[in-house]
Amino acid sequence: MGSTSAHNNEGLGRRDLIKRSAALGLIAVPTMSFLSACASSSSGKDEEKSKGKVTKDNPFGVAKGGTLDVVIFKGGFGDQYAIEWEKLYKAKWGPQISHLGTQEITGKLQPRFNAGNPPDVIDNSGAQQIKLDVLHKNGQLADLTELLEAPSYDDPNKKVKDVLIPGTADKGFIGGKMHALQYVYTVWGVWYSGKLFKDKGWEVPKTWDAFLTIMKEAKADGIGGLAHQGKHPYYVNVMIMDLIAKTGGLDAMKAIDNLDPKAFVGSDAAKQSIEAMYEIVEKGLLMPGTNALDHIESQTAWNKGKAVFIPSGSWLENEQLKQTPEGFDMKFLPMPLLPGSKLPFEAIRAGAGEPFVVPEKAKNKTGGLEFLRMMVSKEWSTKFAQEANSLTIVQDGVDKSVTLRPGTTSAVAAVDACPVEQRFDYFYTTWYSEMDETIRTASAELMAKRIPPNEWLKRAQAAVDKAAKDPASKNNKRP
Amino acid sequence: MQQGKYRFVTGFLIVPVMLYAVFMIWPYVQTFGYSFTNWQGQSQEMSFVGLDNYTALFSDDVFLKALWHNILLLVFLPIATILLALFFAFMVNVGGRGGSGGIRGVRGSGIYKILFFVPHVLSIAILAVLWRAIYRGDVAGLINGVFIKLGLSDPAHPIEWLNDPDLVLWCVAFVLLWWGVGFYLVLFSAAMQSVPREIYEAALLDGASRVQSFFKVTLPLLWDTVQTAWVYLAILAMDCFALISVMTPGNSFGGGPDHNSEVMATYLMRNFLSFGKSGYACAMGVVIMLLTLFLSLVTLRVSRRERIEY
Questions:
Q1: Is pLDDT above 60 for B306?
Q2: What are the extents of the domains in chain B?
Q3: How many C-beta neighbours within 10 Å does residue B9 have?
Q4: Mind listing the domains of chain A with CATH numbers?
Q5: Which of A162, B37, B74, B232 is the most exposed place for a label (fewest CB within 10 A)?
Q6: What is the b/e burial string over A111-144, where b = at least 16 CB atoms within 10 angstroms of the residue's CB?
Q7: Class of domain B54-302
Q8: What is the DSSP string of A83-97?
Q9: Please, which pLDDT band fits residue A386 given cuts at 50, 70 and 90?
């Protein structure tokens, strides 16, 4: 208990204060560079690792022994698959492997990147991933071009790029070169319960009108039409963007990725699509309250039959395993078509996710590259499918003996029904984090009926224009 | 006795001061340094940009919005928390009917103290999850469920508490209030326990009502404690990071819908981590630090009074 008495005449006079702060300012500016220089200790260069002999089976010249430092995002896929991989890697090359499975990619790795001693392989994923565009700008990602050109593990006469599903490697291109191996093959769309459809006698809706009709009938029965993960506008944004790509064709999608000044404002496809989405909101076909729910809450409500449709990627089934009732029969639906669409109903967003990277300053960069090369072998890809119930970007990379669940099976059927040239995937999400965030926020506002479609288009276009101002954007171009 | 006093005290303080210097002051100094650069957070390559970050900051609409939200919290939170905590503390300590037993709290005051303090025992992450279930935006939310049962709202349009631009900030502020009151109740109780009983008895004998004895006796004698509480709560209002980032919508660190619950701390983190504008984020950190320092000084100065000895 105590405070000083109110009468002390110590402290600074006003004149002194001004003098001193001016002096401080003079000292401060030159010392800034010094301060930020010692703000983190950067470790010195490591001695060059001894190189092994470069052969067809060892294209990067990996030396036996040494060390390999692997950090894996331990999320929906767990990290058991990586532990299995490491056993196989150790059996072949015999290094001391240090393995870390974590959700805190940023917390664990940011200090290491700054200090110049990052691990050799990172599965940089999850909510706390370090954004790839940021890492790339900082020169922290190794160029993976030599990986693409290297002979593949299973068949040295084929290059790595030829054993991947066409177009999937492109998702890892930043600034015109490959910097990440996006490993998991994912499809996005809308999901429903096959059982509910059977009970109500509904047909698979291929057109937007049929889609709305089902939702209206559901509403009459006291079921919500569309649920979405409102707290994370990422999901509903996928729906909007897919609708734009299907309505306006691949050109409409590329216009957005290439930061076209008419990507949104002045694009008929974008206007038509966002108005169609707004129709769902206006007609009251959303599941009541869905805008305020997070992904687990909304998906669980959907599992309980409170809504007919929900947008998500093919990880949905794995995520909802415990909440999915017996006989639910999860089914995948490509986005239904608006009149005059350029792409057919079968067209889907399918592409690679889950970026694996090798840091530029890794101690054992060759080992990291070799690890990635082994990842796209049939053996490793099958291991992944077994442990994580997901497909990889390796062509026919999953042994037929692996059984998949109903949702994944229906997603695989959708992929098989869609020719490769009609599968599409957006890249702006990897290239321009801030633009992505802004558009998602606008989508959340639209779904909550707080902004009209025109305002959404304006905001999205403003985000595009802002991203285009960054000189670094010049290096990203979609073919 | 007097001679070695300072050396003795310094000897004891040197370790904590060293720790404080290494883990608090030095990072602040570094942040200050980084705030003049265009550091992107993932490598040590950066160049000096002078005051650019600071000028950009004050023309950044989102930052100004976040600052405004912090100011709203700063005005509302300390006043509401301290008033409620003082009232409850008074009731559980000296607000009871003075029977033959003299001065005591209302009946069951021991239980009240425990009940009020419980929220403070839980970690803030648990609180955030708990309150998300209470505010949940569909019919499964606790408040919405009750409202619908009472016929106050329509099941087809439940109130989306945390997704409503006008409500979201106050929903979070209420949680902070609920969380803070218990702690300050205990703090003020402790201070009240040290007030001699005779003073209250004298006031009672003179026929003072509860209200009078609160304003004439309790408050003046607790002023030091109230002042401390005020500074702490002001610092808390400048932060709020944990609750906002867990409870509110948005992709990285919440702050939604459409920045309607954004506070400086959440916007700082998003710039630092998601957008790779770490130098810019450091400039925000410096602004937050200066504001907090300024606030603490002002609070201590404005609320200074003559000390009452007892």
A1: yes
A2: 54-302
A3: 10
A4: 4-186+350-418 (3.40.190.10), 188-348 (3.40.190.10)
A5: A162
A6: ebbbebbbbbbbbbbbebbbbbbbbbbbebbbeb
A7: mainly alpha
A8: HHHHHHHHHHH-PEE
A9: confident
Could you tell me where the DSSP H helices lie in B35-167?
A: 52-57, 61-93, 109-121, 124-135, 142-149
pLDDT digits (tens, 9 = 90+) for B148-207: 999 888 888 899 999 999 999 999 999 999 999 989 998 998 888 888 888 888 888 888
> What's the confidence (pLDDT) of residue A256?
96
Could you tell me which residue, A363 or A11, shows the higher pLDDT? A363
Q: Least CA distance to A434: which residue of chain B?
A: B275
Whether B33 contacts chain A with CB within 8 A:
yes
**Mean pLDDT over each residue of chain B, to the nearest integer:** 87
Cβ-based contacts under 8 A for chains A and B: 164
Contacts of A35 in chain B (CB under 8 A): 29-30, 32-33
Q: Given CB atoms, is B39 within the 8 Å cutoff of chain A?
A: yes
Cα–Cα distances (Å) from A51 to A58, A143, A455, B156, in that order, read 11, 19, 58, 67
Per CB-CB distance under 8 Å, the chain A contacts of B275 are 131, 134, 433-434, 437
Residues B253-292: tens digit of each pLDDT = 889 899 999 999 999 999 998 888 899 999 999 999 999 8
Interface of B with A in 261-300 (CB under 8 A): 270, 273-276
User: Which chain A residues are within 8 Å of B251, Cβ to Cβ?
Assistant: 232-234, 437, 440
pLDDT above 70 covers a percentage of chain B that reads 94
The closest alpha carbon to A134, from A175, A88, A186, belongs to: A175
DSSP β-ladder status, A349-357 and A181-193: antiparallel
Q: Is B42's CB within 8 Å of A138's CB?
A: yes
CA of A224 to nearest chain B CA: how many angstroms apart?
A: 9
Measure the CA–CA gap between A343 and A326, rounded to whole angstroms: 35
A273: nearest Cα among A197, A211, A355: A211
Per-position b or e across A230-250, b if 16+ CB within 10 A of its CB: bbbbbbbbbbbbbbbbbbbbb
Phi, psi of B301 (to 5 degrees): -75, -45
Chain position carrying tokens 């101690």: A363
Q: What are phi and psi of A166, to 5 degrees?
A: -50, 135
Backbone angles phi, psi at A360, to 5 degrees: -60, -35
Residue with tokens 């000096």: B48
Query: Which chain A residues contact residue B138 at CB under 8 A?
Result: 287-290, 292-293, 297, 301
User: What does the pLDDT look like over A255-267, one tens digit per residue?
Assistant: 999 999 999 999 9
Q: Does A381 touch chain B (CB under 8 A)?
A: no
Cα–Cα distance between A151 and A56 in angstroms, integer? 7
* Amino acid in position A336: P
| Residues recorded for chain B | 310
Nearest to A1 among B34, B40, B224 (CB): B224
Least confident of A36-45, B135-144, B238-247: A36-45
